[in-house]
Amino acid sequence: MQRQLFNILSSMFLSALLAVSCNDDDYKNITKNGEPTANAEGITTAVMGSQLSFSVNCSDNSGIELSTLKAELLFSGEVVDQTIQRTAENGNYQVSLNVPFLRYIPDGEAIVRLSLTNVTTKVGVNDIKVNVERPHFDNLQFVSADGNKVAMSEVSPHLYSGKFTTSETAFKGHFETADGEWIFGTDGTEITLGGSGNLAFQCENPGEIVVTFNTCTYSYSPNDEIAIAPLLFSEDDNIITRQMVKGRQYFISGNVANDWFVDGDFFENDGDGVYTFLAENGTYTLTAYSNYKYLQIYPGTHDAPSTLQKDGTGAIWVIGGTGINKPSLTASNNQDWWTNIEYVQSLAQIEPKVYRITLTVGEQLSATSVNFKFFGQAGWGIEFKGLGGEYNLSCESETFGIGDGNNGHDNGNIFLKDGATLTEGDTYTFTIDLTEGVDKGKLIVKKGAAAKNIDLVDKEAVVSTLKKGTTYAFGGDATNDMIVDHDFFKDNGDGTYTFLCINGDYAIKAYTSYNYIQVYPVDKEGKAATLQKDGTGAIWIIGSDCINKPLLTSSNNQGWNTDIQSTQCLAPISDKIYRITLTVGEQLSATGVNFKFFGQSGWGIEFNGLGGDYHLDINDNDDFRINAAESDNGNIFLNDGATLNEGDTFTFTIDLTEGVANGKLTIEKQ
Amino acid sequence: MNILTVAMAMLVSATACGDDSSIDDTPRPADNGNNSEIVADNAATIYTTTADGSMRLEKSTSAIFSGNNMAPSTILLDKSKTYQSMDGFGFAITYSTCYNLLKMDAQERADFLRQTYSPSEGYGVSYARISIGCNDFSSTEYTLCDEKGLENFRLYSDETDYVIPILKEILAINPDIKIIAAPWTCPKWMKVGDIEKKTAYDKWTGGRLNPDYRADYAEYFVKFVKAMKAEGINIYAVTPQNEPLNQANCASLYMPWQEETPFVAELAKAFKSNNINTKIYVFDHNYNYDNIADQNDYPLNVYNALGDEFEGSELVVGAAYHDYGGSNNELSDIHSKAEDMELIFSESSIGTWNDGRNLSKRLMEDMRNVTLGTVNQWCKTVLVWNLMLDENMGPNLDGGCQTCYGAVDISADYKTITKNSHYYVISHMSTVVRPDAVRIGTGERTVSKNGLVYSVFQNADGSFAAIVLNSGDEDLLLTISDGEKHFNVTSPAQSVVSCNWK
Fold first, then answer.
1. A211 near A142, Cβ under 8 Å?
2. What is the DSSP letter of A565?
3. Host domain of residue A487
4. B267 neighbors B216 (Cβ within 8 angstroms)
């Protein structure tokens, strides 16, 4: 009977277990039994960046079968690695855990937690203390970008130092053990173990310098604060990701030369490789494409370019047809609606939530084929619509429109309005203002580059620091009908003017009585610049009433008068090279030509044609000569028999690069 | 007990669905794998609210450890980086709020107010905003001097029967609470339609302060501060005008910076000559200056126009902002241009327009924008609109906000309180950040994760506070370290966690 009863009980119990197996909820009701125990010996220490391998003895003395062994490595309670394996029977099981090598983590006591579960789900937990240490290297090296290797020694815990010789204020390299097992470099965003990219270093005083690296904090030096932060590019190392600061100057060097297109929406060219960053502070990636001489800038990292956020921050991108492209329409990256980072255009965030892109017709924007769209990423996804949508733009431009899907253009696509024409050379700025929300974006299109305003006062010299290629507008007493000295400024035809000369301080003077804006360089004291012995400074013309800006008929035309308003300053178009452009009948008489080049707007230094410390030789010229005689030495006259035609324009260029005593005057008819 | 009974018992035991024991009920080691030394008798206090509402200011503790902190996901406080000191966090105590509170059973009201305002038994809400005269949530439009002549100044029944009694109850719970006051309108007899012609303006909405009455209006403020003082209520700060660029509303006064500037000078002088040390915050309106071009950077214009050589200049301490237009980035912009001046955030509301009763949406957004987003951009104070409205968004006035929700809703029977996001975002700050706390920085080691936003503070008593928003979709196990001690805290996906420890 007892046996029978046992059978009944057994079958009932089995029925219960079967019921459990048929219902997920019921497995909770398994009665936990047994004493699963996991033990490991000999794991008292571990080194960061290595494997911790050990044998775990798993058993359940109650005889219940085992299920799984979970091994976890905990750093201060946080699981940094774990592994789970099946454990059917009592016995030894091999476990391997990664001991991570992480930035900042100090040496300390970690926990290896062994959790052994038997088939009744009973868990036995065993925590084993393990001392974890960061490794010390006896073979760490600094490896420069050009392959030079410098041994480093550990001067204090985890701080390594070595001496490196460089002739540059900016150089690149990474850290690597001699066996190549440990490499510390950049992954494009930050310094990491295993990062293969070179890090950027800066030193104020090149020569033999000390390079350091801390393998705990990942701090490295030298990173001297250099007023003009260097950005060094090479053919092999053409991507830099950097925290950029609005208004800060950067020195762009390496294979990015003066003839490259450096995106002007992000950088203002200060000359001599120096650029001022114009966009909002943040992480940016700069990529030098040598095949089409383009320095591209966009927010974010190479792996994660910034995207537009719902609050209007982040980034805006242009994707479009072949009618839009930076650096130029003819560059090989101009591909029809391609979305890779190389083929899209990032707008510069010039103010929080305000983005801008500047395009010149015939260069970055087709005069006839306008079809592009604004996106929230460098690919498909968020896109700005002209009608409806979570991301919406409105535009009041008379030239450009936004498609709404009903007006013959795809919703959100930018198009050239019927009847509107674009002129080669004209520049347009497209500004997107999201300050009212991404659903209330405003697209503002203006002809002309974004201009800096300078307020002028009648007959007063307003001194400003002017930068070549920068666009200015003049306010105050300046009026739209004033003639701005065309050797210094290109008239953009829209009330803005692009500066043509070398960067520096200039006086800008408005004369309301004869509608002229005169420009000339000034010295450190703000006085009219004079010619220096090294050929820098300024060159001036004093002459008879045969020559005058803005016009011969203007009231400031006073023969041989040395007042500044009656003299003509040549434009310093590059270092020690000066130019003035004169049109016959407007600024230059067809007859009676007689003027001279001076080193100041008055008497003093004057250029001679015969000898002299300041001497000019003239190119072969049919029309003009420089008088090479004791009398009127250096005066510019017409050649005998030469006649000038009204409307002809001549450029007079003086080149002092070979010294003030070896000046070359080149006169060309345009 | 026979053997069949035993068998049946076994069967029931094996199949019972009501067994709520966990799968893994094995006790964990006391240190939960955190193998530093436990600091005896010390634990961090943690409050957690999740966007799904499953945890609502749920209190727990976490053991504090000393020794090396090896956790990668660490928020490391850096006491060497200090920012602004804090004044507090709170709600507007309007007539409507008080009306609803007074409709409650007295004991239930006391319990609610204690839970909200008590630093020891509740969430320690530390600041309140009231109006000088009427606001959108008054019984009617009025000022404290509706009849011409300041001799007619008096407190109205909205104050005497509602706001003052409730403030007294709150002050009994938390005597240190700070109160800021702002008028929605000056008395109509002080208004003109045009400040040049000074044409009379007999409307509650719009109009401008007659320049001839600037001194009288300053005296009106003095009388208000004194009248409240007589009731035992200290007015810590005022703003000259609620939403000075808002010409709508049920009651308003247009006061561009060109007109607020001379009034602020009068007000500071009046306070000074009456030995009143109530602070003055200028502006009290939106980040975008209501898109009025010449009102851009309103506070800076006031500061520059005032200079610092006027009587009572020390009382003009900063500017107040609302968030009904523009971005809170404006706070950083203004701070960068006037670093010596204070910033406070004085009003935000939830309502029908922003899905205000949807905690799953609002908790994340309001924590990010209203509290952390302002505190991390130099605000000393964060105030939101009505503490309590009824389930029909009232009582309210025609022309005022009829679509606003309170930080809490009270049911029609004045029994059931439903807490909305604004209650949680304020309480999450006030419960761990005490007045005079200093916001501090974090070290380079601090973990950076998408959706993780936080503020950290050191209180005047030396304790620390951390408020962590996790708007990501994954639970995070974080370690918070003050550099000497650390503890683990779970930051659930879509949650706010506030921590306090010594």
1. yes
2. G
3. 456-669
4. no
My answer on whether A353 and A407 are in the same domain is yes
Q: Decide if B36 touches A, using CB distance below 8 A.
A: yes
Residue A171 to residue A206: CA distance in whole angstroms: 10
Give the chain B residue nearest A104 (alpha carbons).
B445
For residue A511, the domain's CATH number is: 2.60.40.3620
Residue A110's DSSP bridge partners are A130
pLDDT of residue A112: 97
Q: Say yes or no: A5 and A61 in one domain.
A: no
Strand order across the beta sheet in which A489-491 lies: A452-456, A471-476, A496-499, A489-491
One-letter amino acid at A474 equals F
- Say if the ipTM goes beyond 0.85: no
Domain boundary among A226, A261, A296: A226
Which pLDDT does position A28 carry in this prediction? 60
Within B274-358, residue ranges assigned H as helices are: 298-306, 329-337
A180/A115 same-domain check: no
Q: What letter represents residue A334's amino acid?
A: N
CB B320 within 8 A of CB B283: yes
Inter-chain contacts counted by CB atoms under 8 A, chains A and B: 129
The whole-angstrom separation of Cα B475 and Cα B491 is 6
Spatial neighbors of B23 by CB under 8 A, at least 6 apart, are A28, A121
Better pLDDT: B149 or B39: B149
- Same domain as A122, residue A160: no
Q: In this predicted structure, what is the pLDDT of residue B138?
A: 96
Domain's final residue, options A394, A420, A447: A447
**Residue found under tokens 């991404």:** A438
User: Is B73 close to A105, i.e. CB distance below 8 A?
Assistant: no
Q: What is the rounded distance in angstroms from the CA atom of residue B138 to the CA atom of residue B157?
A: 10
Based on the domain organization, do A534 and A480 belong to the same domain? yes
- At B40, the pLDDT band (50, 70, 90 cuts) reads low
Write the Ramachandran bin of A76: left for phi over 0, alpha for psi from -120 to 50, otherwise beta: left
Of B23, B32, B72, the CB nearest to A28: B23
One domain, residues A161 and A306 = no
- The CA-atom distances, in angstroms, between B260 and each of A18, A262, B280, B303 are 81, 47, 12, 11
Distance CA(A522)–CA(A524), nearest Å, equals 7
Over the stretch A251-272, which tens digit does the pLDDT of each residue have?
A: 998 889 888 999 999 998 887 8
CB A326 within 8 A of CB A406: no
The parts of chain A modelled with pLDDT lower than 50 are 1-22
Total domains present in chain A: 5
Query: Same domain, yes or no, for A209 and A155?
Result: yes
b/e sequence A464-477, b meaning 16+ C-beta within 10 Å = bebbbebbbbbeeb
Please state, as a whole number, how many other Cβ atoms lie within 10 Å of the Cβ of residue A158. 18
E strand segments, A434-486: 441-447, 452-456, 461-466, 471-476, 483-484
Residue B326 at interface with chain A, using a CB cutoff of 8 Å: yes
**How far, in Å, CA of A382 to CA of A521, rounded?**
49
Residue B225 three-state SS: helix
Which residue among B11, B24, B33 sits closest to A74, beta carbon to beta carbon?
Answer: B33
A110, closest residue in chain B (CA to CA): B35
CB contact under 8 A, A76 and B23: no
Say if residue A147 is in the same domain as residue A126. no
Q: Residue B130 has what pLDDT?
A: 98
- Closest Cα in chain B to A109: B35
| Closest of B272, B271, B263, B401 to residue B324, by C-alpha | B401
Do the Cβ atoms of A48 and A134 come closer than 8 Å? yes
Could you tell me if B28 lies within 8 Å of chain A, comparing CB atoms?
A: yes
Give Cα B114 to chain centroid, integer Å: 17
Domains in chain B, please, with CATH? 37-83+439-501 (2.60.40.1180), 87-432 (3.20.20.80)
Contact residues on chain A for B19, CB-CB shorter than 8 A: 28-29
As given in the structure block, the two tokens for residue A424 are: 């080669």
